[in-house]
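call fold(seq) -> tokens
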Amino acid sequence: LNNIVCRNSDGVYEGVAIGGDRYPGSRFLDHFLKYQDDPGAKILLLLGEVGGCDEYDLIEAKKSGRITKPVIAWCIGTCASCFATEVQFGHAGAQARGDTETAAAKNKAMAEVGFYVPESFDKLPETILEVYTKMVMEGAIVEKPEEVTPAVPLDYTWAKKLGLVRKPANFISSISDDRGEELKYGGMTISDVFSQNLGIGGVLSLLWFRKRLPQACCKFIEMILMVTADHGPAVSGAHNAIVTARAGKDLVSALVSGLLTIGPRFGGALDDAARMFKEAHDSGMSPKSFVESCKKNNKLIMGIGHRIKSLANPDQRVVIIKNFAKKHFGSTPVLDFACGVEQITTSKRANLILNVDGCIAVCFVDMIRSCGAFSPDEVEDLLSFGCLNGLFVLGRSTGFIAHYIDQLRLKQPLYRHPWDDITYIDNLAGQDDSKDVVMLKPKDQGVASDAQGTGSSAGSDGATIGEGGVGGPCSQGVCRVVRDTCTVA
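ret:
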């Protein structure tokens, strides 16, 4: 009804809906008298319905002259005459209880006293327009310019769907999106990831770097994951994973126990090696000056040194990575600098070679600098974010999981470290000499019960024990008492 009025006049001054209850709180007459006395209301509009007698109160007010303003009126429910019996419409009071309460009777009575009553509801807009136009022509209504329509805020749900607004987010993600028809990695649909055969290196480049790197870079990333996948069961991470698996823990617990050993002493030196070699190269320092500077400042060169490998017995992982970088990267200045450092360090000791961690680190720096996908600031950010250590963690997770599965496959029992591989110390050097250090040796080690303290091995770490005191037999083998004055190398 508001829409009809606004389209055929200068708008609604005020409107009231009182409902069709049997016992309403207010009646038509109450409101019509209010608007009759209000100079702002020019035309009175009534939409009544079948049932009740309220319209007749308005008719009497019109007859008595209490209502003088033009009244446009229509009672709905004229279709009730089409039924054989009286019809109860939706409202409690919408039922004629006599001929005078029908919609047709009310419309007829209102028209007779001078109300503007259309022939049907469909004609109501025309009637409003006619009355309004007539009053404008007579000067009873002076049209005013339309006021500026206030801006109505968009419905939030609709605006959000259109992408015009967003609610404050607890998380922000720029690498993947699962809201549409397809999962996306870095803006690429999962279908395209497989149809274009990106591989794990391509997927990692999309998720980690938000860029599709060249194929050679993706292949290099996969090579890093392959060469770092495992390094045998003796290293600290694999050892932890194996012990945890044999303790009956689940896969995730075993994996985490291995990952928690990664740090500056095991697998966590890649980022430091990359920064060290990059900064030395960028400073213009020569390899010889770099080595001498590190020696002077008693500073370890990260990525240099191997327990058993040397230039004569090279680590094939280093050879593979180095050759790939030389062949596929545009330039390898940081790798060349690291090889120059290697020439100096190996002249001092044969095993001070560029190890696999150092080789991966310097080649990674050359890769992200030469591929053309990153600005200098982005290169600095990637190195500071720990991406290289992340690659080691990702690759070595494969090996840790493999060791977990291997232990279950072999049905290995709970692990307990052999006590004969542990040096038990009662007191430390410099403490009271009256306190002894006791090391137990099992029977099957072949140590005589009357051994007189000759030097012997002190476990798998290669420590040796010099001449000491005497020992006597015990229930587990031989107890050897060693004084504080002995040496442990």
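The longest helix spans residues 387-409.
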